[in-house]
Amino acid sequence: PTPIRDSRADIVMTHEIGTGTFLPEENCSLIMTNANVILIIGAKAYLEKIYISFKGNYTIYNPTESMKSTLIAPFSSEFEILESSCAIKIENTTVPYDFFEYNYTDSPWEEYFDWEYVHTWTRKFLIINATFPENNSITIEYSFIAYIDTTTSIDILNIYYDVGTSRAWNGTISERIEFKVYGKLPDSYSSSRNCTLSDITNGKSYAWEWENEIITS
Fewer CB within 10 Å, N- or C-terminus of the chain? Predict the structure, then answer.
């Protein structure tokens, strides 16, 4: 396996909007072993909104005694209706969540984000609390449907998933990120990592995969 450093998966459609992997609120022994993410983007020409559907599945292993921990997930502040559409499940059971906002210079997790995408003064964070059983794994699923208002002048819209947030975890991780784009296709996409392209009905799929990657800071 090769180390994760500044890897990311993104498509370029320079206004940056995106999200990233769950992070632990503070240093801990937990290990995220697997992440599978699908973003569905409806980018039809001449519409004033771009709709984004997100679904992420994460497996987190606790190698020590039972513990409780707080997890956060980052979002750009431009996502509309995100807070009302979000759903979180732990082991298939719906759990409550909160949102809060940081000035990006004040967030304690900025070291894990790709600075190329810092073009906004604030960033939203989703927060959940979870119990991790001793020497066992749990699965977390979260999803949302949101939109981006494109009525303002935007020359380039860059929609991204910040894979570098995985650096907040320990051990190794297998990760798959897929963008399914319908309507207007992106002019370019991240090629710093091999991307698998495939045709889908009325669109195209862009997928990046990391297998047993060593997580390094």
Answer: C
Which parts of the chain register pLDDT below 70? 1-14, 44-47, 104-121, 151-155, 192, 216-217
Q: What's the pLDDT tens digit per position in 13-32?
A: 567 788 888 888 777 899 99
At 135, the amino acid letter reads N
For residue 175, what are the β-bridge partners? 35, 210
3-215 sits in which CATH class? mainly beta
Give the start-to-end residue ranges of the domains of the chain. Answer: 3-215
Question: Please, are residues 189 and 157 in contact by the beta-carbon 8 Å criterion?
Answer: no
Question: What local confidence, expressed as pLDDT, does residue 2 receive?
Answer: 42
DSSP-assigned letter for residue 152: S
3-state secondary structure of 117: helix
Q: Pull the structure tokens for residue 197.
A: 């392209």
Q: What does the alpha-carbon distance between residue 92 and residue 135 come to, in Å, rounded to a whole number?
A: 20
Contacts (Cβ under 8 Å, ≥6 apart) of 75: 18, 19, 82, 123, 124, 125, 126
Instruction: Give buried/exposed letters for 151-189 (b at 16+ CB in 10 A, else e).
Output: eeeeeebbbbbbbbbbbbbeebbbbbbbbbbbebebeeb
Task: List CB contacts of 25: < 8 A, sequence separation 6 or more.
Answer: 69, 70, 71, 72, 127
